[in-house]
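Customer escalation, tier 2.

The customer says the design service returned an amino acid string that "doesn't look like it belongs to this structure." They asked us to rerun it and document both sides in this ticket. The original structure tokens are below, unchanged.
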């Protein structure tokens, strides 16, 4: 009895094993039976096979859900339309994880389908990528079944992205321009090219490994275009727009005008230097720096003007050979070149001999009788703006008759300048007699004057003068001194 039970148990176990094995693997020995899609022709083209996506979209969705791969359905449909089909022969014995059939017009899913035909199975194969996985699908020829052949973990290399930052956006000549490609991603190689305004490539730079920054500069003004490029490990080049522009500022152009050239007889007179005619091609001139140099080239005076007009009025108190050098700056701080026409050499000479005319009124001692006088003379400059020698002569007449009569004066004076407007005269003069009973003789002269008209080429002043007689036995002080008030014009 026990033996029969053992035999029965073994038989049941064998049947269970056969059923289980049959449930795990479906052997497919021939193709074209129970096809998922109706395909005309024995060996249709790949393009005909793609029509399955349009005609059987709902059935495909149902089949993918049966295979628990509903998340792959949409990528399958999208990529099938543009997929590249490859013809392939599946060896006998290869297993498909699943295959879609149609039995009595119902969609069926078989899992673990093994090709058990007598020859390799000719198929169309194509790939669907999703979540770093490569799903390889096949459609047997001539059959409309859809089967998953294999799933491969695939490392999808993301495309390179170029990131380029260049600054400052506007620089002066030979100032650094910083190029930064730190913002690039997925790049194994980065490069930047620089083009001028005419489109010619003038620079290029390949960043060494681990380096993302570069610095350059330009010695010519204009607009420059920077184009960046990032290359991935698979050789793919970034396709996003990666470029920017930098403007290199053009320096201002200096133009200088002087109020005299040559500056003859200009010691003590103001000379105007004017840089207002300077221009800037891409901005405006905002500052001028003036420098005066002596004959040896040493800077003896400077002046900076930051508002318009860009002028400087300079007075030279010594004759000599000088140079004026002007540098102008634009609103970017760029300076003009230190060359002509803003560097001029010039001579300042001093006028030595001047003409002098005087006129006025006075009082003669006696009864303090009034008289009118007029004189002419020459003034010889001995020291610039300090000391002069005056030689003059003239006459005077009274407005009444006897005992007064016209008299003559002849003087030699030193003119001492006490400041820009004040001066003092002192010297010796000779006066003829103004009455028959008086004597001619020498006078000590002193005068104090103030300039009221001070032009570049002439000076006008008023003065008060005292003529004191050099006392002799017959020429007494009380009868011979005179007081004068007059106007002097020097030219």
């Amino acid at each position: 009895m026990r033996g029969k039970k053992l035999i029965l148990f073994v038989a049941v176990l064998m049947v269970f094993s056969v059923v289980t094995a049959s449930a795990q693997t479906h052997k497919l020995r021939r193709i074209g039976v129970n096809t998922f899609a109706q395909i005309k022709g024995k060996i249709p083209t790949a393009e005909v096979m793609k029509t399955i996506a349009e005609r059987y979209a709902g059935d495909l969705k149902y089949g993918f859900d049966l295979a628990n791969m509903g998340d792959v359905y949409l990528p399958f449909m999208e990529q099938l339309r543009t997929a590249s089909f490859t013809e392939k022969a599946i060896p006998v014995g290869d297993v498909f994880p699943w295959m879609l059939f149609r039995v009595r017009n119902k969609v069926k899913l078989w899992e673990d389908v093994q090709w058990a035909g007598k020859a390799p199975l000719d198929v169309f194969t194509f790939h669907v990528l999703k979540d770093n996985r490569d799903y390889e699908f096949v459609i047997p020829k001539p059959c409309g079944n859809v089967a998953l052949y294999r799933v491969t973990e695939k490392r999808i290399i993301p495309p390179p992205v170029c990131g380029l930052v260049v600054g400052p956006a506007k620089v002066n000549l030979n100032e650094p321009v910083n190029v930064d490609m730190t913002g690039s991603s997925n790049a194994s190689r980065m490069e930047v090219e620089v083009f001028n305004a005419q489109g010619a490539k003038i620079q290029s730079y390949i960043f060494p490994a681990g380096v993302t920054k570069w610095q350059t500069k330009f010695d010519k003004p204009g607009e420059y275009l920077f184009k960046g490029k990032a290359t991935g490990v698979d050789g793919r080049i970034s396709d996003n727009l990666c470029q920017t522009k930098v403007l290199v500022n053009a320096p201002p152009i200096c133009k200088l005008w002087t109020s005299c050239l040559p500056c003859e007889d200009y010691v003590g007179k103001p000379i105007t230097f004017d840089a207002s005619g300077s221009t800037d091609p891409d901005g405006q001139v905002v500052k001028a720096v003036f420098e005066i140099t002596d004959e040896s080239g040493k800077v003896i005076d400077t002046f900076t003007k930051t508002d318009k007009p860009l002028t400087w009025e300079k007075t030279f108190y010594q004759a000599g050979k000088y140079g004026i050098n002007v540098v102008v700056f634009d609103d970017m701080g760029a300076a003009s070149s230190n060359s002509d026409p803003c560097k001029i050499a010039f001579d300042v000479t001093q006028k030595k001999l001047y003409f002098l005319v005087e006129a006025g009124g006075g009082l003669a001692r006696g009864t303090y009788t009034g008289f009118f006088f007029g004189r002419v003379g020459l003034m010889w400059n001995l020291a610039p703006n300090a000391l002069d020698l005056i030689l003059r002569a003239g006459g005077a007449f009274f407005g009444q008759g006897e005992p007064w009569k016209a008299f003559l004066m002849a003087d030699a004076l030193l003119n001492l300048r006490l400041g820009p407007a004040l001066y003092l005269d002192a010297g010796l003069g000779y006066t003829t007699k103004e009455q028959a009973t008086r004597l001619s003789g020498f006078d000590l002269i002193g005068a104090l004057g103030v300039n009221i008209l001070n032009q570049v080429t002439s000076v006008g002043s008023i003065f008060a003068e005292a003529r004191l007689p050099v006392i002799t036995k017959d020429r007494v002080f009380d009868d011979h001194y005179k007081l004068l008030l007059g106007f002097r014009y020097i030219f």
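Tier 2 assessment: The sequence is consistent with the input. The two ends are 162 Å apart (CA to CA). The longest strand covers residues 369-383. Sent an explanation to the customer and offered a walkthrough call.
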